[in-house]
Specification:
41% strand; 6-stranded antiparallel sheet; two-stranded antiparallel ribbon; single chain; mainly beta; 11% helix
Length: 114
């Protein structure tokens, strides 16, 4: 399978950051099973919210205090009345299962991925 090439500038236009989940709750109103997250991205970006389809592997209480990686400059999306401001990143072994990307060691909230 040949994958389309993307210019390096397109990749570097994404602002990927590390943040810590400070609040997580079930999101039963979403069309697909999801969790509402509030993520602290440090003093520069502050707290941002995300709707993440993580329910196959994670209960909301398991996410509290966990560092995640998210794209923070994709704009906002409205999902069942909820404003999702960042896209949390994970690997998808199948269309409904998400495995969160993880760091080997803690880093300050707001640290850039590059």
């Amino acid at each position: 399978m040949t994958l389309p090439l993307v210019a390096p500038d397109a990749f570097f236009a994404l602002d990927l950051r590390v943040g810590t989940v400070v609040a997580a709750e079930a999101f039963p109103e979403a069309r697909k099973p999801a969790v509402k997250l509030t993520i602290d991205f440090g003093p520069e970006l502050g707290a941002r919210r995300s709707s993440a389809q993580l329910t196959v592997r994670y209960a909301p209480e398991q996410l509290l205090g966990r560092q995640v990686i998210a794209a923070v400059n994709l704009g906002v999306r409205r999902i069942a009345g909820f404003t999702s401001e960042v896209l949390v990143l994970g690997a998808m072994p199948d269309p409904v299962d998400v495995v969160l990307l993880a760091l080997d060691a803690p880093v300050p909230n707001g640290t850039r991925i590059g």
